[in-house]
Structure formats: structure tokens, C-alpha cells
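A reminder from the course coordinator: this example appears on the midterm review sheet, so study it carefully.

Given structure:
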């Protein structure tokens, strides 16, 4: 299976005491880079969440967002902040001692004091278990989206491979015809320049010319690189970096063919191959 580095998954879980929402999204990146956005009360889950994601993913910039909203319920009602209440009592006594005419704090004053009422929350351990279960579920969907995208990228790359093979098949027969044409032109020019043309000189010039325009080696290497691309794609796994290296090699051979070209058709073929390789390289950047 080929995996794209682009993926997305979002899941929500409604519980009796609150609502969990988790979102995973990723884009391409050279390495695995995981960023978390979680509530403060669940910050202690980050190491476990990171470990889980690291075991399942290889590359990509991953953004993991976890949110929790507490619902109003009889099971977790508002509670009085007794610690703050004691401090207010001490403060009230101190003020009355210094200012006997000052008014005592009323019940209404106390209830409106910031932080005096707080929502009771479920045990952190229960929240942690629920959050990790939610992450596992979201991760399965996240990997599935990356796999579907990866299959599309694989199909695109294989299509480009076939197009390059067709271009190579077109280029191969052109070279012998170029040599024959050059031999005829060279012989005619030497015949004009010399009364007694030298066959050895003609053969030497033809040999030098054929060496300069011979692209059999480049064509063979291109075919070998294309075979390796297909093998890697069929093998699957984390293959992005290996494919990226092969794109460099394909582009190198296409450039060499272009530099050796003495025929407009071969030059066109070289340019078309480079365009296809560049299209492949762009897609490879998104493969894990």
C-alpha cells in the first residue's frame, strides 16, 4: 500500500458528561512532525498520543487537535470553591477589624465572586481513556484517507511511466537513421573537398559522430529506472524518499539525451520526458 502524506479525519464522541472532538490533518513534510492542540487538563496525554502516532505514521506534518466540552448534568453539578471561600472569610474578618463600619460580605456577594463556583469534571483518568480511544478510531480513518490518496498517486505515476516508455520506444529507432544520413552527408562533402576521398577518414568521422549521439546507454538506464519505480510502487510502504531519488536519476538521463541530440525529434522526446518526470516528482513529494 502506498500512502499519501495528505490526510484528514475528524470524529466526535458524545458522552453523558461531555463531548469530545478530535481532528487529524496532515500535509507533506520531509520528516515526521507532530503538533498537538489539547486542553490543559489533558496535556499529560501528549506523550502517549505522540507514541501512538509515531508507530503508525512515517512522514508528514501532522496536526492533532483535541477538544472537550463539559455538559451540564446532575452527575457533575457546580461546586463551591471551599478554598476560596475560606480566603474570603479571612479577608472579610481582616477588613472588619480594620474598618468596623464596613459591611460584611453577603451570600450574593460571595456567589458572584469570580471562581467561587466551579464545574466538577469527570476523573482525569476516565477522560484520558476516552481520548486515547477516540484517537485510535480517528487514526484508522486518517490512515484510510492517506491510503486512498496514495492509490491515486500510484495510478498517476504508473501512467507517467507508461508514457515515458512510449517515448523511449519512439526514440530508439531514430538513431540508426541519423547515422546513415550523416554518413551520406559526410561522404558527399569529402568527395567535393578531395579528388580521392579517404574511406578511413569517413569511417573515423562516422565513429566520432556515432559516439557523440549514441544514447543507447541512457535509454537502457531510463528503462532500468522505470522498472525500479514500478517495483517500488508494487512493493508499497514508506517509499517516498526512494522515489524522489529515482526522479533525480530519470531527470539526469533525460538531460543527457537532450545534450546529445542532433535531431529535432530526439530533442522533443527529451523535453517531453523531462516534463513527465517533473510531473512525477511533484506527485512523489506527497508520498510518505
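Designed residues:
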Amino acid at each position: 500500500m502506498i500512502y499519501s502524506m495528505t490526510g484528514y479525519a475528524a470524529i466526535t464522541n458524545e458522552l453523558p458528561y461531555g463531548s469530545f472532538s478530535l481532528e487529524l490533518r496532515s500535509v507533506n513534510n520531509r520528516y515526521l512532525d507532530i503538533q498537538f492542540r489539547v486542553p490543559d487538563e489533558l496535556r499529560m496525554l501528549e506523550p502517549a498520543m505522540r507514541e501512538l502516532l509515531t508507530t503508525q505514521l512515517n512522514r508528514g506534518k501532522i496536526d492533532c487537535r483535541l477538544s472537550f466540552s463539559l455538559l451540564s448534568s446532575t452527575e457533575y453539578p457546580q461546586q463551591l470553591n471551599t478554598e476560596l471561600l475560606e480566603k474570603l472569610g479571612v479577608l472579610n474578618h481582616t477588613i472588619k477589624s480594620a474598618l468596623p463600619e464596613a459591611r460584611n460580605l453577603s451570600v450574593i456577594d460571595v456567589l458572584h465572586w469570580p471562581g467561587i463556583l466551579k464545574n466538577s469534571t469527570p476523573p482525569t483518568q476516565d477522560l484520558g481513556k476516552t481520548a486515547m480511544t477516540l484517537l485510535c478510531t480517528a487514526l484508522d480513518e486518517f490512515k484510510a484517507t492517506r491510503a486512498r490518496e496514495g492509490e491515486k498517486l500510484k495510478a498517476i505515476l504508473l501512467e507517467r511511466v507508461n508514457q515515458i516508455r512510449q517515448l523511449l520506444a519512439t526514440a530508439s529507432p531514430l538513431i540508426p537513421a541519423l547515422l546513415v544520413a550523416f554518413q551520406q552527408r559526410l561522404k558527399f562533402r569529402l568527395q567535393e573537398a578531395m579528388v580521392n576521398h579517404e574511406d578511413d577518414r569517413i569511417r573515423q568521422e562516422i565513429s566520432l559522430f556515432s559516439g557523440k549521439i549514441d544514447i543507447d546507454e541512457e535509454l537502457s538506464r531510463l528503462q532500468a529506472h522505470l522498472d525500479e519505480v514500478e517495483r517500488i510502487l508494487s512493493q508499497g510502504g514508506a517509499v517516498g524518499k526512494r522515489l524522489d531519488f529515482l526522479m533525480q536519476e530519470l531527470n539526469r538521463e533525460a538531460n543527457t539525451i537532450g545534450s546529445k541530440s542532433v535531431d529535432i525529434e530526439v530533442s522533443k522526446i527529451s523535453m517531453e520526458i523531462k516534463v513527465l518526470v517533473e510531473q512525477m516528482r511533484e506527485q512523489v513529494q506527497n508520498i510518505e
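Residues 148-284 form a domain with the Butyryl-CoA Dehydrogenase, subunit A; domain 3 fold (CATH 1.20.140). The first helix runs from residue 46 to 56.
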